[in-house]
Write a structure and sequence with these properties.
211 residues, mainly alpha, 9 helices, elongated
Length: 211
């Protein structure tokens, strides 16, 4: 009764290295996609970086698009540790956003990862066949803005921001600043240079009473 299942399992694992580590393979793919973009990352470069055969690639990930989605989720999980963590801190809203922008400047210029942000400008211009990939990245960018909106709205409700604060516009502004920092980092700006931009950007934040 169990023989067909065992045979199928052997078939699926064929071509996969005995020491295959999915998380490590996805991390390598993430860095490639981050550095070169979806279209700029070839299938050959993916299997080489991940250390797997073409057959193992398809058995494990199905397609390049499916791998891209998994790699993007891995990036979001890692970046969410500091992004969501800072926005969730029990501090006043202005301090939270100052810390968020400073962390952005630091994270976008790390030596151990590609510069900038994997999400910020990903798949903005793609052919019609990749519409689903573009929509996926658009939704990820919108999610970050929505989290900023929620934190600002919380500040209004808790009284550390003026009641007439334009929540959507303020969140949109800092979302644009973060995306701009990503582009500047990719163009070679240093952490110190990005910090200078952050200091100027914070001047747009409404005055409020810190708790």
């Amino acid at each position: 009764m169990n023989e067909p299942k065992l045979s199928e399992a052997k078939k699926r694992s064929r071509g996969r290295p005995s020491n295959f580590d999915r998380a490590t393979a996805v991390h390598q793919a993430m860095k490639l996609f981050w550095e070169s973009g979806y279209e700029g990352t070839s299938f050959e470069s993916l299997v080489a970086a991940m250390g797997i055969s073409p057959s193992s690639f398809y058995n494990s990930f199905g397609s390049k698009e499916q791998l891209y989605a998994e790699a993007t989720n891995a990036y979001l999980e890692a970046s969410g540790e500091w992004f969501i963590g800072i926005l969730s801190d029990p501090t006043d809203t202005r301090t939270a956003f100052k810390r968020l922008m400073e962390a952005t400047a630091t994270e976008f210029t790390r030596d151990d990862l590609p510069s900038g942000c994997m999400i910020s400008v990903a798949c903005v211009h793609v052919p019609a066949a990749l519409h689903s990939v573009r929509e996926m990245m658009t939704q990820h960018r919108a999610m970050a803005r929505q989290m900023m909106e929620a934190r600002i709205q919380r500040g209004v409700e808790e009284g550390d921001l003026p009641a007439n604060t334009d929540v959507k516009a303020l969140a949109g502004y800092f979302n644009v600043v973060a995306r701009g920092l990503a582009v500047q980092a990719r163009d070679g700006a240093t952490s110190e240079q990005l910090m200078e931009i952050v200091q100027v950007a914070m001047q747009a934040f409404p005055a409020g009473s810190a708790r």
